[in-house]
Amino acid sequence: MTSLSVVFDEVSKFYGEVLGVNRVSMNIPPGITSLVGPNGSGKTTLMNLMTGLIHADAGTILMRGISPRDPEKLMRITGYATQYDAAPRWATGFSFITTGLLLFGYSRSEAEQQAWKALEQVGLTDAAHRKVAAYSKGMRQRVRLAQAIAHDPEIILLDEPLNGLDPLVRAGTIELFRTWANRGRHVILSSHVLQEVDLISDQVILIANGMIVAEGKIRDVREEIQEHPSQFIVRCDDASRVASLLFDEDHVTEIRLNEDRLGLLVMTRDREHFSRSIGRIATNGHVIDSIIPADENVDALYEYLIGEGK
Amino acid sequence: MDRQRRVKQAWTIARIELRRAFFSRRAFWVYGLALFPAVIFFFYNLSIQIRRSSLQSGSLTTPALIDSIRIGERDEDILARLGKTKRDYRWQSNIRVRDKEEKSGITTHKIDPAYEARYVRLNIMVPTCSSDRTTRIYEFEVYGPDGATNLALHRPVTGSTPCSADEGPEKAVNGSVAGGIKDRWCSHEPRSYLQVDLGEPRPIGSIVIRHASAGGESAEFDTCRFSVQATNDNKIFATVVGATGTRLVEEITWHRNLVYFDGRREVRLSFTDGRLTAKNEKLLVDFEEDRKVFAGVFQFFYLRLAIFFGCLGIFMNLFRGEMLDKTLHFWFLAPARREVLLAGKYGAGLIASSVIFAFGTLACIAVLLSGHSSAEVQQYWQSAGSAHLFWYTAAAVLGCIGYGSVFVAAGLLLRNPIIPAAVLLAWESVNGFLPALLQKLSILYYLQSLCPVPAPVDGDMPALLRLLLAPAAPASKAGAVIGLLAVTAVVLWLAALAIRRIQISYSTEA
Q1: pLDDT tens digits for B436-462?
Q2: What residues have CB less than 8 Å from B56, skipping those under 6 apart?
Q3: Burial of B313 by CB count in 10 Å (0-12 exposed, 13-18 middle, 19+ buried)?
């Protein structure tokens, strides 16, 4: 399992006296993993550490068993779309990707074939022969993505990959992430846009001030946080009556009625008891239309875990 | 297999970087540095060609006739033998010299008929004919018509303020000139005078004045212009000797220069008063001299400045330029060892700089040789030419290898290229002063040892500059090549250590 994971063991990185990340330990299995945190929280530092662009001051990192200090092996299985916006001055979109592929040992014709395929995946074939320097921000984002995936890597690191993409390409890109993840690959991306992470991630790693504050599947993370009540939106015909019944339960800490009197937000300390209580109420003849968890998303987790740090 | 792949990767990187090394804006001033000596030699050759065709029209003669010219020959004889030349320059020089017929520093002035007077006065109008403004009179003598007795001897005398107390007017009537400068009347006043009282009116037949050179001083200080007046009442003076001076005459010397050309030699014949006094022969193009000039240009300009700064521009930019452009991560994210990246980039810089400077060296030699006759060039090739060509080119390439390694390492280690460049330039410049062991840590030490012709150090050069340009004790050629490659290997090893430690953080990396 370890050799198929991305493993951080007590990793610290300082920029002079400024903390980058501090004693980070984590184990990232294949699938889509999102590094989430506010600007400056350490997301890019973690990605740069994974790819050897910066070196850890303490601790060890293994990317599917390979040290980032060995770029010759690591970068063969890794693609990284960085946040750095610049491309070499000489590069067109096509040559940017082809050149990278030549360093992998592909023949020129193979490299060109792969480059076209990658450019096609990000919808950049029309602009392939234009200088990257003349691209728009979104196009530069896409060409970096194409360069990261062109050699069909097992680990794909994407720093804020959806920034600047139009909705159509965005949807296609998310679909692409899912395809790779389904093939057993690592797709590790960073974002501070919580909603998109919520939709696409198998798991999240929440970072604040250079430290991991939570790691795992969103629901598992949520469940681990016992001290914070869970929230459910209950849609029903007689919201006031249902609310009064729920108030009798010990585990319910707060209830807010919707203005339309057809729904309520319930906060509970015990999800299982809550499920049993709702079951009893429904059995007693009250029509419950739906129960939706309101805080099984990273926004809520973030609010709980980091609070004002968000 | 791994090694093969790495070599291929390094070559791929080198090929990509070559474009930048050859065609970036910075590369164009490197071309300028590399081709500068060739351009200078080209214009030098052009000026020689112009001079040659100018000499050939109107000054051409045969080598045998030039060899027949002897010092002391008359100009007209030479012109008759060699024919007229367009370059025939004449001029005269004038110098003021003492009239050969006059006794040194003594002027005698006859007064005829004799004039009777009690007081005789010498008026100095211009003290000397030089820039000196001091009057020097060693003796002022007044004679009667018989010329037998000096009437002024030991008579009362007055005059302008003397230079010092013991150089008063009385010294001009003491009958002596042999006592050195204390035996003269001297005055700094601009229009000084000396007046003798003869005691009673006496007929005056002649005046004798002994000037500076009569007392042993330079003739330059003899009185330039003066007059003598006489009076009985000390009120109304009559001029008995009009304005005159020590007799200097203009001596005129006639000069003539004739220039002839025999196809190789330009001969300048210098005549003085019609006789040949000097014959200066100069080869219009002197192969030996040109070789020395090239040796100097190659060592003092090409190695020390052109290759040095050219490599600074090319190699320092390999990594520093990527950091400034924020594109270095592109290379670090390739599946290649950092050392392979270093090798690829260094290789690109080396190929570019070597091609540029080797071509520059060859172009310079070609231009230099183009100014010489094919016979000379052929002879040169048959003797040392090909060896010289090889070693000069090798020195240029090895210069790129050595300086390139230093600057690529500096580009990895340091932010500001000016500081290491200045330090290295200073280090290379004082190389000649360093102990033998430290000399071996200089690139220039090895490069100079490879140069086939020692650079001339002009004796007229300022001492400090001569010391700075003086080459260190040379190593053998094999030793120089091995030494330079060893220094390069050490520097590249340090660069490899540095590149492994480099981290991407464009705003903060050192």
Answers
A1: 777 777 888 888 888 888 777 666 666
A2: B261, B263
A3: buried
pLDDT reported for residue A181: 92
Compute the distance between CA of residue B384 and CA of residue A162 in angstroms, rounded to an integer: 69
- Contact present, B14 and B408 (Cβ < 8 Å): no
The alpha-carbon gap from A82 to the nearest alpha carbon of chain B, in Å, equals 9
Final residue of a structural domain among B246, B262, B294 = B246
Judge if B141 and B241 occupy the same domain.
yes
With CA atoms as reference, the chain B residue closest to A84 would be B326
CATH architecture of A2-216: 3-Layer(aba) Sandwich (3.40)
In angstroms, rounded to a whole number, what is the distance separating the alpha carbons of residues B332 and B340?
Answer: 11
Find out whether B470 and B433 touch, Cβ atoms under 8 Å: no
Q: What is the pLDDT of residues B272-311, one digit of tens each?
A: 999 999 999 988 888 888 888 888 889 888 988 899 999 9
Q: Which two tokens stand for residue B188?
A: 């700094």
Q: Are A210 and A203 in contact (CB under 8 A)?
A: no
Q: Assess contact for B335 and A78: CB atoms under 8 A.
A: no
* Residues of chain A found within 8 Å of residue B333, distances taken between Cβ atoms: 51, 53, 71, 75, 80, 82, 100
Q: Which domain holds residue B119?
A: 106-246
| Rg (alpha carbons) of chain B, rounded to whole number | 40
Residues B381 and B497 in one domain: yes
Question: What residues of B are in the A interface, CB distance below 8 Å?
Answer: 5, 8-9, 12-13, 16, 19-20, 322, 325-327, 329-330, 332-338, 340, 501, 503-506, 508
Minimum-distance CB partner of B20 among A53, A80, A90? A90
Number of domains within chain B: 2
Best mutation target, B332, B333, B340, to test chain A (most A CBs within 10 A): B333
CA angle B58, B285, B67 (to 5 degrees): 60
Nearest CA in chain B to A148: B333
Is B199 found in the same domain as B112? yes
A222 Cα distance to chain centroid: 16
Whether residues B142 and B193 share a domain: the answer is yes
pTM of the model: 0.70
Q: Do B353 and B342 form a contact (C-beta atoms < 8 A)?
A: no
Return the SS3 of B239: strand
Q: What's the CATH class of domain A224-309?
A: alpha beta
Q: Residue B118 falls within a domain, yes or no?
A: yes
Q: Is residue B314 part of a domain?
A: yes
**Which of A16, A71, A100 has the CB atom closest to B337's CB atom?**
A71
Q: Which helix (H) or strand (E) holds B7?
A: helix B2-23
- The reply to whether B297 and B218 lie within a common domain is no
Residue of A nearest to B324 (CA): A86
B411: exposed, middle or buried (C-beta count within 10 Å: 0-12, 13-18, 19+)? buried
Domain end position, chosen among B214, B246, B278: B246
pLDDT score for B104: 65
- Lowest-pLDDT range of B12-16, B52-56, B443-447: B443-447
- State yes or no: ipTM above 0.90: no
A 21-80 → B contacts, CB under 8 A? 48, 51-55, 71-76, 80
Q: Taking a C-beta distance cutoff of 8 angstroms, is the pair B133, B188 a contact?
A: yes
Establish whether domains A2-216 and A224-309 are of one fold: no
Q: In which residue are the tokens 């990793």 written?
A: A11
Residue of B448, B444, B455 whose CA lies nearest to B297: B455
8 Å CB contact of A71 and B8: no
